[in-house]
Amino acid sequence: MEGTAFGSAYRPGGDEVLARSAAVLAWSSGIGFGLPGLYAIVHLARHGEIATFLGYPTYGHGVFENRWGIRTTVPLLSAFVVVCAAECGAGALLWRQRRAGAAVAVVLLPVETVFWVGFSLPYGPVAAAARTVLVLRHRRRVLGRVR
Fold first, then answer.
1. For 21-42, what is each residue's pLDDT tens digit?
2. Cα 37 to Cα 74: distance, rounded to the nearest angstrom
């Protein structure tokens, strides 16, 4: 039974669980904000107004729109979708436990924060905080083992 799909040969270690959990959070944020961002870009370009979902504005009525107006929303949303794609890339690297994945995830955090505040997206920081804790714990364990 050892080494088969039904055996117990494969058990992910703590390091792998931390990295893969961080990867799943990165993917969920990247996809969860990126795909609706694409829809919001198309809707705004076609209709000239911010799309709503269940009565709430999607990517509108935040600091960006209030300060610079709706005309800046498509370029800003386009940049945010690129950041979301980068977050998915970080998730792929984290899944494979690459150091670059942790670095990209940490570097993206302030960039994402600008967009979450600018578009008034309250759930982004929650997932990012959890992802960052997992990434930092993973890096500490991996780097601690190397020394």
1. 999 999 999 999 999 999 989 9
2. 9
Q: What tokens appear for 85 in the block? A: 């794609």
**Integer CA distances (angstroms), 3 to 7, 8, 10, 61, 66, in order:** 6, 7, 7, 55, 59
Q: How far apart are CA 94 and CA 81, in angstroms?
A: 20
Q: Tokens for 131? A: 């992802």
Give helix then strand counts, H and E, for the chain. Answer: 5, 2
Percent of the chain with pLDDT over 90: 41
CB of 117 within 8 A of CB of 61? no
pTM of the entire predicted model: 0.81
pLDDT digits (tens, 9 = 90+) for 74-108: 889 999 999 999 999 999 999 998 989 999 999 99
Q: Give the CA angle between residues 111, 100, 92 to the nearest 5°.
A: 85
Residue type, 139: R
Nearest to 89 by CA among 72, 108, 74: 108
> How far from 108 is each of 3, 29, 68, 75, 82, CA to CA, in Å?
39, 12, 23, 18, 11
Length reported for the chain: 147
